[in-house]
Structure formats: C-alpha cells, structure tokens
C-alpha cells in the first residue's frame, strides 16, 4: 500500500475515535499531576498555583471561543461532531475558514492544552503537543483527501492560500452567513461544561493530596462555576431533546 493511501486509512480510523482522545489526555494528565504534587514543585516556583490555574483555564476558554466562532458561522452538515464518516454539503471558506483550514482542531488543541499545562510538567506538555500533532495530522490528511475529491479545484485553490493549522489573517474574508447562537448552544454545551468539570477535578485532587480534605475545593469559585455549568448543560440538553427552540432552517 502506498504511503498516501496508508495515511488516509489511518486518518479515517482515527477520525472515528477522535472523541476518545480527550479521555486519554485527561487520565494521563491526572497521573502526571499527582506525581508532580507528590514529588515536585512544578511551576509553583515561578507562579502561585491559583494564578497558574486561571491562566490554564483561560487557555482552554480560548479554544472554546475558537470553536464557538467556527460553529456559529457554519451551515448544516459541515463542521459537525459526526464520528462515523466525513460530512460536508458545502465547502466553508469564509470567516475563520479564510484564516485556517482546520479551526475546530485548533480550538480543541487549546481546550486540551489548558489541562496539560495544569500538570506543571514541561515534559508532559511537550509530549501532549507532539501526540496531538501526530494524531490529528492523520485526521486532517484524511479530511483533506475527502474534500479534495468532493470539491476538486475549488478546494485546491482555497487550500493553497489558507494554512492548515496556524492562523493567518492575511486573506481574511467576512463570514457569508449570519452567526447562530442557537447552534452554538446546541453544539458546544459539552465543551463548556467539560472545561469546568476537568479543572474542578484537578482542584479536588490537589486539595486532597495537600490537605487530606476537599473543604477548600467545595468552597471555591470553581465549584460553583462547575455546578452552574452542569445545570446549564442539562437545561440545554432538555431543550434540544424535547423542544424545537434550537431548530433553525439550514443550521
């Protein structure tokens, strides 16, 4: 099998299971975090943990904002969470897609980089970046092969002037579709809640290891923010399942 076909097959396989990758990062990150707390001072020699935690959360929310901007300006059957096969009824080339070809994966990178940073372990952070790139490089390859076959020269001309992963605003064009908060609330509620739950989990582990108690964790702003995000998640999930409040033609 030629390397081109092998890369594409690997990418198709990885695409189907990409939703499990955060669990791998989370579990490995938690193990490294525990090790750092027990045997090393990590970055606390430079920054107090509370400040470093806020910075890490900010990095994750930067990724969520990228995803929100992407999803809010896309029509139906593009930029979805489908896992069984590639879907693209049209080629997105305006808005954030005029600055980078894979904005959702850029958003995911920053969302997961936040917890990776929280481990306070440079080796783990470097390993995360490398693993993310190697994994998603194959997925991006398979997606681009699919889009190239479906849209032909239109895709090739767009890809020639648009970078794959590093944003460039040189050729930015305004979105050709209005922003949909309904689609954002429907699609991105998982990521919003996951950020708070993940960081609160790290906070509880730190509290228990250092104080043998969860008192500080459950009396912190992060606990109430996590609780609120969970309530919001279930409200939005209920509205999506049992009402038509999020229904929009073409979105």
Protein model, in words:
The chain is mostly helical and 251 residues long. It is 67% helix and 0% strand. It has one domain: Four Helix Bundle (Hemerythrin (Met), subunit A) (Up-down Bundle), CATH 1.20.120. Helix 2 runs parallel beside helix 4. The longest helix has 30 residues.
Record keyword descriptors for this entry.
about 250 residues, mainly alpha, Four Helix Bundle (Hemerythrin (Met), subunit A)
Please, how many domains? 1
Q: What shape does the CA trace take? A: globular
Alpha-carbon Rg, integer: 20 Å
The percent of residues in helical segments reads 55-70%
Name given to the CATH architecture: Up-down Bundle
The CATH topology corresponds to Four Helix Bundle (Hemerythrin (Met), subunit A)
- As residue ranges, the low-confidence spans are none
Number of helices: 10
Q: What's the story with the biggest beta sheet?
A: none
Structural class based on helices, strands and sheet pairing: mainly alpha
Q: How widely separated are the two ends?
A: 39 Å
Number of strands: 0
In oligomeric terms, what are we looking at?
single chain
**What's the pLDDT, averaged over the residues?**
87
Strand content: under 5%
Short account of what is shown:
This protein is mostly helical. The chain has helices at 3-16, 21-39, 49-72, 103-118, 122-151, 153-161, 181-187, 189-211, 215-218, 221-242.
How do the strands and helices of this protein lay out in sequence?
Elements: H1 3-16, H2 21-39, H3 49-72, H4 103-118, H5 122-151, H6 153-161, H7 181-187, H8 189-211, H9 215-218, H10 221-242
Helix pairs in contact: 1-5, 2-4, 2-8, 3-4, 3-8, 4-5, 5-6, 8-10
